Amino acid sequence: MFLITGMLFARCNLGLYYGGIYVLINLIFNGLAVLYLGLLFTKDKAPVKKTLISPAFVWIVLFSTMVFIYGHFKLFTAADYYSRMITIMTALPAILILMLLFYNKEDVMDVLAVSGSVVIITTLITSLCYDYVWGEWLMGMYSRVGATPAGGVIDTGNLVLILLLPVMYQVIILRKIKQYLWISIIGVFEILATGAKSSVFPIVFVFAIMILGASDDKKVVRRNLIILVVAAVVAFIAIMTIPPLYGVVGYRIAELFTGVKSAEPDLHTSTGQRMAMIAGFKEHFWEAPLFGHGFYSFREMPYSAIEEYRVGTEIAYRNVQLHMNYMEVLFSYGIVGFVLYYWFPVYIIIRAIKANKMAKIMIFSIMISFVFMDLGIDMYYKYLLPYYSYFLAYFFLEKDKQS
User: Fold this and answer.
1) Is the pTM value of this prediction over 0.85?
2) Burial class (CB in 10 A: 0-12, 13-18, 19+), 185
């Protein structure tokens, strides 16, 4: 619990961007995990060997190697900010956590729920200390909040959602309400405060998956689904009518529908900018469909000057990445790179169809969450979250096979 909590806190709350003490804390927790796993290895070698010969390990090594080749050697039209440290410090914690989970497979839900609960709290504390926008709430201005040194509000919303999954499993499936309901409420509040559509939308689907899996009694399932639908409608009305909720989340939902319907992208809005990105992708992807244009190459193109910013009183436009994992991987590495990244989650989903109830609930909750997350931001390079989450899904498959 301590090591998993520490690695998640270091990588997902503190990050690596600011260097110095932030990188050192990441190295300390990873180093402690390596030492502890070395001690465990002397007593039981099977979990380490199982990780190193697994499809999960093959996947992360192959894809990380491809990103290294594209980024380090600047193939094609590559951006020039590739970092070997980021690649290593993204892959290594995921691998170490998978090994730790194999050593604790009988107590995994408790390990994940406790670790997740602690990191949800540290995320809130870190954000309160780091994100100055929280101060605007005290003045009655409700803006999106939740940024940490490791990422922006979208990243925080996505992180908290994934951390909530085992916590929600404890509450909904195992009925450990007293122990975990409080942290579930805090987590949902954090997600709403970020205003991140990529984590707000999946909550309804995750609740549906867990409610469907909570009982085999059709009457109970039907009752729970009715409760879920009513709760979703009430929540939607509240988000669209209560000023603080509308100021953080509601206006973004309204903007999504108006922006998609617009004939011309409105670059003043987030949705309009994303529509412009999609238009640029559709027009230029086919110039290099097989192997792509290069590491974060969209940002290097003249047609990616989409995001507005102010220079004094003047409005200017800066180049941006695609803000969608599917398109970013396709544009940067082509169809080959897209297959190299997404074959592993597809493999997990296919195998999950025949898995037991716990595995199905956790795997499909993770995967439906990432459908939205990958639509909302490019996650493959800078973030531990997709690797940790896919490895977690893979772990539940293997745990199911052994049980």
Assistant:
1) yes
2) exposed
